[in-house]
């Protein structure tokens, strides 16, 4: 079987000849037998020659994935590597331990000695970081580290899912079988709080939709160890602290197991104190270095707070890097070597820092005083008059509200300042291009958390469009989707109620999401950024720089993700181009 995952939905009557032949045919027999057991989902491993296949089964029906009338099974099969170097025989032992067998019982099924099984268990405890066989069994069930067909043959009884499925395959269950699970009280859900900004409709929609997409996908696969994720969202006024505080307290009262958000927390220093008092994990994308440093300096208080992207302090350096590459490539040349920063009065949008000015000066640039541009209270035509007076080569506009950048760009095109426009984050929202149309062409923008245009990112974008009938943009939807998935990975391995264990897991294990790789390390509170803080693109998120061309976002930098040769001179700088503002 190829490395690419295969997905197929079948019924008990699907003919064998129409089933994919690259998958061992026995797996389809197990998929059909899955319909005989009353479980919403099941996951196991299958040995195919020298490779392992991860098999995930989920029931589907007319009334949703958990309907009692479900008569179809969705199968997802993918080639995987065994984690932590677990051997074939160790997986056999792990599977049988999860069934509840003693060392002697395991040895009897495998034709070996109890002493050998004891040694194999010791190695498994070390490899999987567990202290007891009970912990091994729970981890095996949670992560699907269970092998089928069951080592040693058909079990004497059911209990866990793989045992019931093995019995069903061998026709030792009938359709009246009721698994133990149906007689046990429904497990309490894992509650996830989502703080959604209301100031920009596209931003708020992407924040909520990205989170709900991830939650729905996880729940359709049976949740976390049989516990569904229950999303509880609060829509807040971004700049209204009393409103935000009330929303947080409602989430606290709901006893949520974690909270996720976009950048709301950056506007309010009290936010971190409230979260620290509650004591549960909080993941956000506020791009605010001061909060990251605060958390790193007081881990005993703020260690459960993670910024899932790099900070605003790297935006300026990324712009200087791009300008150097453009000049070196001969794609654009500076005239005055003047940069004008326009900054939203927000701590997270202070990009023209002393360090940035020092870096710019070393590269031969003169950075003027920053011009404050308050949200909803800026006369953009007056601002452009001030900008034009200094004749800049580059206008650096730091404002995460896309409607503000739209207003700026309309004024900019009326004024026709001969400068590059370099935005921060907000053009990632679909509303920017939707509002401006072709007039958006030529704008350059960057983000420290962008959705990759690769197989994972493309799949996410397709799933988002299919569910919400709109485009997810290129940043925040993917970022919160990854936040949910990261938490789910931790919850699948440790107790969701144990904050220390969840935090320890988030730190220790890198997570590859649709916006890149999240790795915090033992002390960090934000992921690494390529190429700003690490040369390793495989263990970081990329600092992505785009240019809008013909209504599409073309990735310019960094390599190997982007291509600087794809840059085109904006129409307002190209003497042969028609000024799009004339058609506005």
Quick one: overall form? Answer: elongated
Distance from first to last alpha carbon = 54 Å
DSSP strand tally:
21
CATH topology of the largest domain: Rossmann fold
Give helix % range.
Answer: 25-40%
CATH classification class of the largest domain: Alpha Beta
Spell out the CATH superfamily of the largest domain. Response regulator
What does this structure look like?
The protein is an alpha/beta fold and 584 residues long. It has 3 domains: 6-183, Winged helix-like DNA-binding domain superfamily/Winged helix DNA-binding domain (Arc Repressor Mutant, subunit A), CATH 1.10.10.10; 190-311 and 453-541, Rossmann fold (3-Layer(aba) Sandwich); 313-447 and 550-583, Response regulator (Rossmann fold, 3-Layer(aba) Sandwich). The protein has 19 helices and 21 strands. It has helices at residues 25-33, 88-98, 103-110, 114-127, 133-143, 161-169, 201-220, 241-253, 270-278, 289-297, 299-302, 315-329, 354-362, 380-389, 402-415, 430-436, 455-468, 476-493, 499-508; strands spanning 6-11, 41-48, 51-60, 72-80, 190-197, 229-236, 258-261, 282-284, 305-307, 338-343, 366-367, 371-372, 394-398, 420-424, 444-447, 511-513, 516-518, 529-530, 541-542, 544-549, 552-557. The strands form 5 sheets. Strands 10, 11, 12, 13, 14, 15, 20 and 21 form an 8-stranded mixed sheet that branches. Strands 6-5-7-8-9 form a 5-stranded parallel sheet, with helices on both faces. The protein has a 4-stranded antiparallel sheet with strand order 1-4-3-2, covered by helices on one side. Strand 16 and strand 17 form a beta hairpin. Helix 2 packs across helix 3 and helix 7 (201-220) packs parallel to helix 18.
